[in-house]
Amino acid sequence: MAAELTGTCLTLDDGRFAVRFTRTYDHPAQRVWLFVNDPDESARWFPSRLDIEPRDGGTVRFSGDPRQANATGTVLAFDEPRHLSFTWGGDEGRFDLAALDAKRTRFTLTQVLAEQNAAAPNGAGWEVCLLALDALARGEGHAGPHSEDAADWREFYDAYLDAGVPSGAPIPGPDA
Questions:
Q1: Does residue 81 have a cis bond before it (omega within 30 degrees)?
Q2: Are 71 and 87 in contact (CB under 8 A)?
Q3: Is residue 29 part of a domain?
Q4: Number of domains within the chain
Q5: Residue 173 falls within a domain, yes or no?
Q6: What count of other Cβ atoms lies within 10 Å of the Cβ of residue 83?
């Protein structure tokens, strides 16, 4: 049975290609904001620990990803608790939060891709990461997207390939 895909591949108005994921969490926007902006919280679900200088033009430090070297990016927009975007290598990460009511928030993650053929591997990676975030948001313990209890990236990758999502970009890591 193929993995259930929750991502959407799309072309943005400016012609760039992206993968997008939307979730609804039973938490106020300020709590969901911490999942992204608190370094200890981000390290539990994001591919890297995020240390974010909270201002437009600030620095983002990515560390702790066993598949990637530590790196830095630039905060493109910081509007707490509604929007964060930053550069990430040649890509752009965007997080948009919308309070649905006092206790529920719509969370949208968009990765704008430098290369269209990175859609399948990135989509698969986000599926694994967001399953970890979903568990954390429900208050369940999770050791993160790189742990042994993480979902199988390859199953999601194969499902994206089966769905015809662009692929072919190099996949980081020794066991990709």
A1: yes
A2: no
A3: yes
A4: 1
A5: no
A6: 16
Residues in the chain: 176
**66 domain residue, yes or no:** yes
Q: Is residue 20 part of a domain?
A: yes
Phi, psi of 64 (to 5 degrees): 90, 0
DSSP letter at 120 equals H
Q: Output the domain CATH number for residue 14.
A: 3.30.530.20
- Residue from 162, 172, 90 nearest 125 by CA: 172
What token pair was written down for 86? Answer: 């930053």
Task: Provide the residue range defining the domain that includes 130.
Answer: 8-162
- Looking at the DSSP bridge assignments, the partners of residue 72 are 61
Look-up: residue for tokens 């108005």? 13
Which stretches within the chain are classed as H helix? 29-37, 39-42, 119-137, 153-162
pLDDT in tens, the chain (176 residues): 568 999 999 999 999 999 999 999 999 999 999 999 999 999 999 999 999 999 999 999 999 999 889 999 999 999 999 999 999 999 999 999 999 999 999 999 999 999 999 999 999 999 999 999 999 999 998 778 888 877 889 999 999 999 999 898 877 654 54
SS3 content of the chain, % helix, strand, coil (to 5): 25, 35, 40
